[in-house]
Amino acid sequence: MIFHICSVEGNNTPSFLCAGAIINSKYVLTAATCLGPENLGKRRLSVIHLGDYDLATERDCQQTRLGPRCSKPHIVVGVEETFSHLDYNLRGTASDDIALIRLNVTLNFEDSSATIEPVCLPPKDFNFKAFAGNRTPVAAGWGLTEHGKRSNILLQVNIPIADDALCRERYKQNFVGNQLCIGGSEEGFDTCNGDSGAPLIMAGPDGPPFIEVGIASFGPFPCGIKGSPSVYTNVARYRDWIIKNIKP
Known about the structure:
6-stranded antiparallel beta sheet, 4 helices, Thrombin, subunit H, 6-stranded antiparallel beta barrel, single chain, mainly beta, Trypsin_dom, glycoprotein, globular, 2 domains, Peptidase_S1_PA
């Protein structure tokens, strides 16, 4: 499963901002939080890095007995336009936290020169908890680790599903619906600052394709505290919104 990073341009220097996922050849799905002034400030969203793994290298390589083995290079594309949900932040802090980024190129998933592929949207009438059963979804990103620094390496973690009542108790009026309550049952298993927009994904019981069930929105700080789950946007509830707002 391939994820992307967003970069912003400040003083002509791109810097890491958020995470997200490719959903088709023209669009990336992320959190509206990533595109708001609380993250961008006076900067502007300028480029997207697709298919990256190690932010510190131009190309990701692993040393083997036969010499270095390198992955296909990541690609950098521009942004044509962005569109955040119009109700973002209106019903509560980070409510309706979802946004689309339209790329200024059309991606070719058959191109052998890059390792990128889209994630699937949940089908209509998708029931997340019934689909998950006893399995746990996976979140990935480059956010803060237990050492208090952002990771250069794309990390992933299996995070147990929590009861919605735990999020209602913890976040009160900011857990407003169309959200998923994830984590909090084990110490240290969580997304954190810098992971906003990161996809929460699951494959079916028999394996791929991967479905993006959630988008990392907000959570406790410090992160990974037992008894304090994080909140993800429930992508299935926004399927119609996504389809309505993407263009050919």
